[in-house]
Design goal:
- It is a single chain.
- This protein is an alpha+beta fold.
- It has one domain: Roll (Nuclear Transport Factor 2, Chain: A).
- It is built from four helices and six strands.
- Strand 1 and strand 2 form a beta hairpin.
- The mean pLDDT is 88.
Length: 142
């Protein structure tokens, strides 16, 4: 079976988060570029480089069998004909439980190639709760 072709970076991102909430490793990895230079940084985790290593970290995450609920908001998108950078706030929770684990700032970078748009970077960092640090993403340019 050939991998899906994502015609836009937004399509690739939607597929990424859908696979993440369903714990579907194959669907999630179909979003990633097959280049060895892919990079993934999980919240509080190390920098993972290379497709096999990235796949293994997601396999470990999914092996816990926990179903996630993820709300994505506050998207800031910068795009060109061949690359798109999406900065979002993820609110991650456990399916069936109230509340969320913690807000996460994520940067997703996609490149367009012969097989459509693919992810080359996912970098996620925990954010303080709004009460601890004011607004989650004030619009300050420095």
């Amino acid at each position: 079976m050939s991998p899906p072709i994502y015609t836009t970076a937004l399509d690739a991102e939607a597929a990424f988060y859908k696979a993440l909430t369903h714990g579907d490793l194959d669907a999630l990895m179909s979003v990633w570029s097959e280049d060895e230079e892919v990079v993934c940084v999980h919240p509080t985790g190390l920098r993972i480089v290379g497709l096999a290593a990235v796949r293994e970290t997601w396999r470990q995450i999914f092996s816990g069998g926990i179903a996630l609920e993820i709300d994505i908001g506050q998207a800031v998108v910068s795009a060109s004909a061949a690359m798109a950078v999406h900065s979002v706030i993820e609110r991650i929770g456990i399916a069936g439980e109230s509340g969320h684990i913690a807000p996460v700032a994520a940067t997703n970078v996609y490149v367009r190639g012969a097989h459509g748009w693919r992810m080359v970077l996912h970098h996620a960092s925990l954010l303080p709760e709004p009460g601890d640090f004011g607004e989650l993403s004030p619009r300050v340019v420095h």
